[in-house]
Amino acid sequence: MAIPGGGSCDDALILSATADRTSERKSAWVLVVAILGSSMAFIDGTVVNVALAAIQADFAASLARLQWIVEAYALALAAALLTGGSLGDLYGRRRIFAIGVLLFSAA
């Protein structure tokens, strides 16, 4: 049996199997990157809470000041998230994600 493009069904089957393996490898890498990105967000969210005891000891901060620190950090994170989303729309999500990961790693 032949396919309309001029080859046999076996050729089409071989080509589709190769494409499936390539897309499976890409999907696996996308999954790994997404998991690493979300774990970085988890680490980022807990870093301030872990540092609160040291901040309180070093600066003799009251509970109200510690709460202001957490809220200021959340506000800065929200502003960075909105800015990153806008930049992702303008310059490409993959590029901005990579830049964000690099900045986070460098910091």
Lay out the secondary structure.
Elements: H1 9-59, H2 63-91, H3 93-106
Brief overview:
The protein has helices spanning 9-59, 63-91, 93-106. The protein has 107 residues and is mainly alpha-helical.
Domains counted in the coordinates: how many? 1
Question: What is the ordering of alpha helices and beta strands?
Answer: HHH
Tally of alpha and pi helices: 3
Largest sheet: none
Report on the structure:
The protein has one domain (9-106). It contains three helices and no strands. The protein has helices at 9-59, 63-91, 93-106. The model has no long low-confidence stretch (mean pLDDT 82).
Feature tags:
about 110 residues, mainly alpha, 3 helices, elongated
